[in-house]
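Researcher: Here's my situation. A collaborator sent me these components and asked whether they could plausibly form a single complex. I don't have experimental data yet, so a predicted model of the whole assembly would be a useful starting point for our discussion.
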Amino acid sequence: MPRIVVDGRAIDAAGGQSVIEAARAHGIDIPHFCWHPSLSVAGSCRVCVVEVEGRGLDIACNLPATEGMQVFTDSPAVRERRREMLELTLLNHPVDCGICDKAGECTLQDYHYAHNGAASASGERKVRATKFHALSDRIVLDNERCILCSRCVRFTHEVSKSHGLGILHRGDGSLLRETGDGAFARDPYSDNVLDVCPVGALLSRSSLYRARVWYLQPTRSVCPGCARGCPVDLWHRKPEWRLNALDPAKNRAIVRVTPRDDGRPEGPWICNKGRDLAALFERPRAMQAMLHGRAVPLDVAIDAAADLIDSSKTRIALVSSWASNEELAAFKDALGERFTTFVKEDHRPLPGETIEDDFLIRADKNPNATAAAALFPVRGKPMSAAPSGQPPDLVLAWGEGFDARGLPDGARAIVLDAYGHADHARADVFIPLSIQTERAGHYTNFQGVVRAFDACFDKPASVADAQELFAALAVGARVPA
Ligand code: SF4
Ligand code: SF4
């Protein structure tokens, strides 16, 4: 483990680390554009220049940390070279930060103010290039803002392997472009280039001009799109920037989704389905409790469900594979002894969706089937008969994906769901539930990794929290089984 000295501070570098990696691991940030911790070294932007005693200037991203190395990240020679490189980077940049979605999280902005700050020295007209070039139906490119760091190109070559992007031409005529075979548009991981781009050249069409980043806050969450359960941040409006005059639904909207880097071996990446969680969460909700399709207050529906449980003899429960660990445990504690319980597949692959690959995407499109199966290991066909051999006279269906046509003749149904479906009106009792963004909990992914998610918004009063509901049903079930 080589010991190096950075700006007078001794640090131990892990074997094989470059100077930029070793410094970063100890909280020392060396400015960089083209270097990214999860991509290969390009060494093109030269902004990570440092001075090494006895060696002169060199780039920290391509400099192996070796024993006794004395590194200076802020010497006069470094400051001058860094300023020159920033001046070159900005030579043809439009500096249209006022209308750029990246403003507020753009390292070009930050480094310019920190390490240069001067107006352009050039008297020449800036080179104009393509703006709003559609790279795909998900991403637009502003070539004038592109600093040709090649991070996005390397991502498609090294991570997603679609090879969907490249750089055309030379010098100040260079242009980032998609390859002509549509590989980038088909790349299920394409939106990761939005994060790796250090400037505002690559923009999401779904969140374009929707909000300034400083109006938003991230909430820790887990993508429920498949059994991988990728860690994500859900970005939504800060309470202090609440909109009062415009559509209040915007205050409860997910504006964008980004990967949350928790150091997992797969890297800080998610697939495009994870980026589209707003559409998944914001589908039409079930907000009204019902008895046989007739609207009733929530507490009336809960009492009716408790009566049905009390008066039935052979009970089957189909639990949700979108439920959290806490909700599944609450069901087991409160009602587990009264039901024969099966795990239900809430979601299946949608038409056109990537079903499975050898990177992140899993064929099981539910986030918590592993935890559910561990708690409720009963196998078999739930609707035909309970293990006792008796056909069920009560079915409790929790979550999406329940087909009411499969109900045995004469069986009553209690349905618990967060999203709207025409079949809900056919249930004897229907109780609407909260969604993931309205509660906290944990999912256990297919590898057994447990990840936490937090609530972004309050739960509407007309829907039930599943954990509280099960406790209430257990109390309300007055006749022991
Ligand atoms: S679009 Fe962004 S990530 Fe791609 S080369 Fe240009 S600046 Fe780099
Ligand atoms: S791989 Fe699965 S869990 Fe990860 S972002 Fe995609 S759908 Fe979500």
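Model: Some features of this prediction you could bring to your collaborator: The chain has a mean pLDDT of 94. DSSP finds twelve helices and 22 strands in the chain.
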